[in-house]
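Entry for the shared binder. Reason: the reviewer on the internal report wants the predicted structure included alongside the sequence.
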Amino acid sequence: PTGALMPPEMLEAIIDMARGCGAYILCDEVYRHLTQDDVYSPSIADLYEKGISVSSMSKVFSLAGIRLGWIACRDKDVVRSFMSHRDYNLISCGMLDEQIAAIALNNRDKILARSRGIVRSHLPILDQWIEKEQHLHYVRPQAGTTALVHYDYPMSSYDMCRLMYVESGAFVTPGDCFGEPKSMRIGYACSEETLRGGLEAISRFIRAVEKTV
């Protein structure tokens, strides 16, 4: 939830460890290439013979409604196993969904440019808001659509986020869901109007909190 981007050196170190004991690496790559800077993010399936990449049309391509994704791996035995499970559990996806996905993938550069434009123009809005809130801080995201914002109020993240939603309508995810207390995950890939309105609602809520602590 932090928007951190793993350095290539760290990924290579993980691969060396996995290769040393013959382990597979399963990597969720649904936000791959959705970065703040123009950097190339290699796939685990390209870097490691036992790397398993999973992704979907839902995040970068903004097509969650077609419920379509994929698995990539160079290990043929693993691919056969996945195909067996697919045939047993699903048989096939909808043909219309697959046609829509094919059109989107054929125009992936345009769709990715749109998605990058959204997150890159919205993150400065989040930056400016954080700078104005003395009790909030975060590590600026490098990729993806979410940021993990920390606070120093004496309140658990579950209580804070639940009360915030009830009193202000601002809907964020408690940091304790990710093992990070006193924090909240904020998504910033919505419309600019929604983002600004949500941040204003959070500010109004924490002003009320400050009067009681």
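Summary line for the report: The mean pLDDT is 95.
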